């Protein structure tokens, strides 16, 4: 029973028809989209006959395209760290913001990834909205970053190109502009147009 990515209006009649109470949390406007549910599993929801759904405004849900063909291991790390392998919406806490660079640290300790080898490292330029992960060539391995402007010197995490793996892009990077340090963003993966062709 996955409510993530849906509106309250979509899930309420379905839950009510099976006798499950919906508790709305967070943003409850017409454009609300559910990004977290508690309990997380169908059995627990049915057992308690109740689920709390936390929502944000749809404008706060950030769509991303990932590049599994170009950076398979780094994309796997990214999906695993944000639980995008099992959920339709992932959470990413903002670690630091400077100039037009946004850095994120995953909530989940990704123990199985002891190394992130260089793959899909940029050579000439990083484009606005590209998502980078610091690889093991730098100390801050696993940091995720995005820049709001193009850069021909440093990758999305502020590291040199050889220390940066490009894993995808944010579809509308301007959605980051009102995010502050300490906030969390919610990400939803959309089909990659390049791989659809």
User: What is the CATH H-level superfamily of the largest domain?
Assistant: Cyclophilin-like
* Unreliable parts: none
Distance between the termini: 32 Å
The helix tally amounts to: 4
CATH topology of the largest domain, by name, is Cyclophilin
CATH architecture classification name of the largest domain = Beta Barrel
Main beta sheet, described? 7 strands, mixed, barrel
Overall tally of structural domains: 2
Order of helices and strands: HEEHEEHEEEEEEH
The percent of residues in helical segments reads 10-25%
Radius of gyration: 18 Å
Tally the beta strands. Answer: 10
The best one-word shape is elongated
Strand content: 25-35%
Summarize model confidence as the mean pLDDT.
91
**CATH class membership of the largest domain:** Mainly Beta
Q: Which structural class do you get from the secondary structure elements?
A: alpha+beta
What does this molecule look like?
The chain has 197 residues and is of the alpha+beta class. The protein has 2 domains: 8-59, no CATH class; 61-196, Cyclophilin-like (Cyclophilin), CATH 2.40.100. It is built from 4 helices and 10 strands. It has helices at residues 8-17, 42-48, 72-81, 193-196; strands at residues 21-26, 32-38, 50-57, 61-66, 90-98, 101-104, 130-134, 144-147, 164-170, 184-189. The strands form 2 sheets. A 7-stranded mixed beta barrel has the order 4-9-7-8-6-5-10. A hairpin with a 2-residue loop joins β5 and β6 (101-104). The protein is elongated.
